[in-house]
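Problem 12. The chain below contains 448 residues. Write out its predicted structure in token notation.
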Amino acid sequence: MFSAYNYPSSSSSVEFYRGPVLRSLSDNLSEYFEDALIVTQKNGEKAGLIVAIGEAAKVAKELKLDLSALKKNMDLLMPAFFDTHFHWVQDDVRQMPKVSLIEWLERYTFPEEAKYSDHKFSSVKAKRFWKRILSVGTIGGLCYSSIHEVALKEAFKYAPEDFNIGNVLMTMNCPEDIRQSPQRACASVDNCAKRYKSRYVCSPRFAPTTCPEAMQASALAAARHDCFQQTHLGETKNEIQWVLEIYAKIKGFEGVKTYTEIYERVKMLGPKTIFGHCIYLAESEWKLLADSGSRIASCPSSNAPVDQLGIGSGLFDFEKAESMGVPWALASDIGGGPFLSMFDVMRSFVLQNREIGRHSATFTKALHRTTFKGAELMDLSADRGMLEVGYYLDAIRVPMPPGLPARANGEMALEALIRLMPNRESSDTFVNETIIRGKSCFNKEAVV
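Solution.
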């Protein structure tokens, strides 16, 4: 439906997009327009801001436009993605054999991350990766780098501005070539937070590999420089057993009963902390997350069974998170996740939940949790993450599913879109164009 707005009166100050549009409005509502018209501001600091959107005929009538003069695009336009948990330095190990989390980390991931100590290697990889992420329609997110500040510098050099990134802190129980001393880790997180400010994410890898001193330094740096924090929590049962065994021997933590309690003691809980996974949590842990305002990034394609190219961790209980009032969004978690595309994440989320009879996991919900809710997790949702008046035009152009009825609802359109991909691999090459704030930043037709 068309929403009223104080739109500019001169057509030279606006831009128009006409064609099929699919948008997300909530967990329970997505809309499909067979012929929509989007009007955005063209110039100035508000360039790309949506001032009108809805059925083309209605919008044109309201604005007194000659609709016949506006060419209709044949592709489908839909909101661009936000990925709230991924490791850019693991792009080359996404599809390495996965038997268990710890085995996969030790055999493939840690050796791969060690390569990022080299400036030239990091630069080549960063230039390629940050182009590629735009090509799958992801325009913002929260990202882990390796321990190396040189790799972090290269990531910030090439990453679009709505990606926040942090170098992981690792001080124990990991290979020597990717291990920091506690003093080095504490200095690194403080220096990087000063240098990159709010785009930096203080990132203790997780409690088994990061000493309490470094996690406390991370929490202090985040508070001092208004940064997000991110880490991992409750991904596998073996991980939980391992971390509790480790901390039972650390002074001041002998009485710890849960994984989350460790993060509470080092002051990491809070509304600007995003915990990855959170599959296995006790009731007391859910309460700690809820009471502190902490947030969750759920990674279904990474946590999926091994025969689905995941690590086999289990399935996040999003209904429990919602009942406790804990904010959450979907994420790819590459390289645990096998594909960078959030289309694959959406598919995995819906299919895994359907298998256990959790039918509230719809494609409509998946779209909302990879767009608006991802932006919301990053405190960007005031004007990002939704195709609606007052929001910026952050969108992707994808192939139009053939034979889709003009009066199809949003869920039908989404299912048809997912079915259009012949296999999971094709999700990484499905997007024809990516648009940020009304400006094209990737166009498949322009790629030589």
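Discussion. Residues 119-135 form the longest helix (17 residues). Students who got a different answer should revisit the alignment rule from Section 12.3.
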